[in-house]
């Protein structure tokens, strides 16, 4: 059974940093594109960053030069380093695994709350 478990969320001040982690089990991690999405109350879920099995990255414009996505295949873990946090970064952050090979299934974690406030 596929499980994606996020951790590292919490309360941080504007300008501060947090590092989110997502550990995957039950999936061929090294063959998956991994992504981070976020959803604020009353808003659509949106892509934050993604990284392919080959290490190619994609970032939303609103986090460029502030957030960094990385992966450690030996640990089946994807990370999101968040620097220079802003109040508008406040949201529930979700981890996604997307198989790059057939069947191209999608899997989601339960999310972790990030709150940026003084």
Total number of helical segments?
A: 0
The coarse overall form would be globular
**Radius of gyration in whole Å, from Cα?**
14 Å
Order of helices and strands: EEEEEEEEEEE
Mean pLDDT: 97
Distance between the termini: 40 Å
Spans of at least 5 consecutive residues with low confidence: none
Structural class: mainly beta
Q: Count all strands and give the number.
A: 11
Instruction: Summarize the amount of helix as a percent range.
Output: under 10%
Write structural notes for this entry.
- This protein is an all-beta fold.
- The protein has no helices and 11 strands.
- Strands 2, 4, 5, 6, 9, 10 and 11 form a 7-stranded mixed sheet that branches. The chain has a 4-stranded antiparallel sheet with strand order 1-3-8-7, with no helix packed on it.
- It is globular and about 45 Å long.
Concise description?
The chain is built from no helices and eleven strands.
Provide keyphrases for this structure.
0% helix; 4-stranded antiparallel sheet; 7-stranded mixed sheet; mainly beta; 118 residues
Topology (SSEs and partners):
Blueprint: E1 3-7, E2 10-12, E3 18-25, E4 32-39, E5 46-51, E6 57-59, E7 67-72, E8 77-82, E9 91-99, E10 106-108, E11 112-116
Parallel strand pairs: 2-11
Antiparallel strand pairs: 1-3, 3-8, 4-5, 4-9, 5-6, 7-8, 9-10, 9-11
């Amino acid at each position: 059974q596929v499980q994606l478990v996020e951790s590292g969320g919490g309360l941080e001040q504007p300008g501060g940093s947090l590092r989110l982690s997502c550990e995957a089990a039950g999936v061929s991690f090294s063959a998956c594109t991994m992504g981070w999405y976020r959803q604020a109350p009353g808003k659509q879920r949106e892509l934050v960053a993604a990284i392919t099995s080959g290490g190619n990255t994609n970032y939303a414009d609103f986090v460029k030069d502030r957030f960094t996505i990385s992966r450690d295949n030996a640990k089946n873990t994807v990370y999101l380093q968040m620097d220079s946090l802003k109040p508008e970064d406040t949201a529930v952050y979700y981890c996604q695994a997307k198989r790059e090979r057939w069947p191209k299934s999608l899997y989601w974690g339960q999310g972790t709350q990030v709150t940026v406030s003084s």
